[in-house]
From TrEMBL:
<keyword id="KW-0378">Hydrolase</keyword>
<dbReference type="GO" id="GO:0016791">
    <property type="term" value="F:phosphatase activity"/>
</dbReference>
<feature type="domain" description="PPM-type phosphatase">
    <location>
        <begin position="78"/>
        <end position="297"/>
    </location>
</feature>
<dbReference type="Pfam" id="PF07228">
    <property type="entry name" value="SpoIIE"/>
</dbReference>
<dbReference type="InterPro" id="IPR036457">
    <property type="entry name" value="PPM-type-like_dom_sf"/>
</dbReference>
<dbReference type="InterPro" id="IPR001932">
    <property type="entry name" value="PPM-type_phosphatase-like_dom"/>
</dbReference>
<protein>
    <submittedName>
        <fullName>Protein serine/threonine phosphatase</fullName>
    </submittedName>
</protein>
<dbReference type="InterPro" id="IPR052016">
    <property type="entry name" value="Bact_Sigma-Reg"/>
</dbReference>
């Protein structure tokens, strides 16, 4: 249909010129097919390319949906929720990735973003997630997991343009402190006592695939979490989402406002509100894929000093 319309438009334009310039009508009429035929061929080529791009996007989305599997909603005293917002239909599929795993070393999380777009980015995300799911269960050190992933990205994607920004978080069992490894990714937000604060890294390393810029190594640092805290991890499709005037989404402020009165509620409630707010900000769908991963540490239940006494009396 598009190629017919283009040919008709070209022919109509030539006819209109002939009417306006009647003295040159024979020449213009003769030129009409010369204009219409190339336009028809060009439009046909564009239509075929559009179909091919649409098919590539469908394939990439199918692979991505299989890759980004649902995260467990509860692991011990942790509750987790995730939301993934696909980009506008005109945009290419991105390489956002995330996962939450139960391992012998506690719960481990990753969120990241592969450079580039389309099938290549989705393929890179598949490589990273596959390796993370294996390494996180074998490597005692979270930093060692990151360094092994760096080697994989460097080998598979290669070059200065092939890299993955990532955050790796370890939440050990027992009283050991939580740990985070920053590799060029936006820092998480910590929600505590009604306030949202950015957890700025003390140790900031380059993205995975580029650790050689920092001597080929990285290290974790303590993550000060306590019962009742919520930790929000996200990709730059969230923090860089723009409204009609080009203003970025004010993530920290909006999370703080939306979280008021939701202490103790399931994390899915906050993420649903945040997703709606982000869609409102962007006018429907963001220009880039966006991922949100929320981890909530269950609060310690309050001590009931009379409960034990009541049980003893009943016995």
């Amino acid at each position: 249909m598009r190629q017919v319309a283009a040919g008709a438009a070209a022919l109509g334009a030539a006819t209109a010129l002939a009417v306006l310039h009647w003295g040159n009508a024979p020449a213009l009429a003769a030129a009409a097919p010369a204009v219409a035929v190339p336009a028809w061929l060009w439009s046909r080529s564009v239509t075929r390319r559009d179909r091919e791009l649409a098919e590539l996007r469908r394939v990439a989305e199918a692979v991505q949906q299989a890759l980004l599997r649902p995260v467990p909603k509860r692991l011990g005293d942790l509750r987790t929720e995730v939301r993934y917002l696909a980009a506008d239909a005109a945009a290419e599929v991105g390489g956002d990735l995330y996962d939450v795993l139960s391992t012998p070393f506690g719960t481990r999380l990753i969120i990241g973003d592969v450079s580039g777009k389309g099938l290549e980015a989705v393929s890179g995300a598949a490589d990273v997630l596959g390796a993370f799911r294996e390494l996180a269960r074998r490597e005692p050190s979270l930093a060692a997991v990151a360094m092994r992933l760096d080697a994989l990205v460097r080998d598979r994607l290669g070059g200065a343009e092939g890299f993955v920004t990532a955050l790796l978080v370890g939440l050990p069992k027992g009283d050991r402190p939580a740990e985070i490894v920053h590799c060029g990714h936006p820092p998480p937000l910590l929600l505590r006592d009604g306030r949202a604060a950015c957890v700025e890294p003390v140790l900031q390393f380059p993205p995975l695939g580029l650790l050689e810029l920092a001597g080929g190594w990285c290290a974790g640092e303590p993550l000060p979490l306590r019962p009742g805290d919520r930790l929000l991890l996200y990709t730059d499709g969230v923090s860089e989402a723009r409204d009609g005037e080009g203003m970025c989404y004010p993530l920290a402020r909006r999370v703080e406002e939306l979280a008021r009165g939701q202490e103790g509620h399931c994390p899915g409630r906050l993420l649903t509100a945040l997703e709606r707010d982000l869609r409102r900000h962007t006018g429907g769908r963001p220009a880039d894929d966006a991922a949100l991963l929320l981890v909530q540490l269950e609060a310690v239940p309050p001590v009931r000093p009379h409960a034990d006494l009541a049980v003893r009396r009943a016995g």
